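Now for one protein, fold included:
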Amino acid sequence: MTAVAMDLRTERPVPAWALRGARALPLLALPLCLWRLPFGVGFQMGMDVPREELSLWVTVPYVLALRLLPEAFALVCAGLVRPWGERVPARVPLIGGRRVPRRLVVAAGTVAGGAFTLLTVQWVLTTFDLAGFRDVGFVNGWWRAPAAVTSGLFVLWGPLILALTYGYHRRRRA
């Protein structure tokens, strides 16, 4: 077995569905991240709201941060299916080689998955105009449809993180 294959082995085998789910997280965020990029330079993407004149020194870093945070979070969630989510890599100073506390990971995954699931509820209420919640207006349906699709893919994050966390818990419990 190669050294790379040895580095990818967890204490117990990771189910195939969990591996596919962890690989899907960054792909689910990518369309929304790309959709947000034009906002950084002031393009409204068909939104029917007054344009705020903000400096590019503010909007560009803000939008880039919104672009990078989901991808960084997806990378952290990969720890739910990788060995470094079970044991800190030896190259990390001071704590390298120690086991990662299962309860801490499960608690963090549950909180994150729950928070993203709440965003799912908010998305459903605003997108389908339920219970008096209103979404931002668009100049026409041609703009509203891609906005709904890109954000709709992102709402799958919460349930997927909860499922990955449950799989991690089952795999690591005593």
Q: What stands out?
A: Confidence is low (pLDDT under 50) at residues 1-6.
